[in-house]
């Protein structure tokens, strides 16, 4: 989605990514990298006793995977600017397939050569359920510096 310079975007533009299936390897690798070994993610017996009835993927894993589903063009993206109003609204299970729906909601000039693009970032699984939502902000260049 972010392959053209700031100034070439309009509020209301929408883009949908391809899908990505969440695997056991994703969950185990993320636990090892992050140090987050919370039982809901790695302990089948414990997870069966929860409201989810089985293990769920880490919310931060799904958020991280979602950034890989967006197209970031080197030279266009100057920096990740932040996320506002981030919410984890539903579980993602091993075997679920997620995609991102991104809608531009705001454009703000920053410097002469840059601006901040705000997108409604919705991570949706194959059932149509939104599992994570937030307002992702990116600092974009007005020209491609690659």
UniProtKB/TrEMBL annotation:
Domain MaoC-like: 19-118
SUPFAM superfamilies tied to this protein: Thioesterase/thiol ester dehydrase-isomerase
Domain of life from the UniProt record: Bacteria
Alphabetized InterPro entries for the sequence: HotDog_dom_sf, MaoC-like_dom, MCH/BMMD
Matches recorded under PANTHER family: BETA-METHYLMALYL-COA DEHYDRATASE (PTHR43664:SF1), MONOAMINE OXIDASE-RELATED (PTHR43664)
Protein name: MaoC-like domain-containing protein
């Amino acid at each position: 989605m972010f392959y053209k310079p700031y100034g070439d975007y309009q509020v209301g533009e929408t883009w949908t990514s391809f899908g990505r299936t969440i695997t056991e390897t994703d969950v185990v690798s993320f636990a090892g990298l992050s140090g987050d070994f919370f039982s809901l993610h790695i302990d089948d017996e414990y997870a069966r006793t929860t409201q989810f009835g089985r293990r769920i993927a880490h919310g931060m894993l799904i958020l991280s995977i979602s950034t890989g589903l967006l197209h970031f063009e080197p030279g266009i993206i100057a920096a990740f600017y932040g996320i506002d109003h981030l919410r984890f609204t539903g579980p993602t299970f091993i075997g679920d397939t997620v995609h991102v729906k991104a809608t531009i909601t705001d454009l703000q000039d920053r410097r002469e050569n840059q601006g901040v693009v705000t997108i409604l970032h919705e991570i949706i699984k194959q059932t149509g359920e939104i599992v994570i939502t937030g307002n992702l902000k990116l600092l974009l260049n007005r020209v491609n510096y690659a």
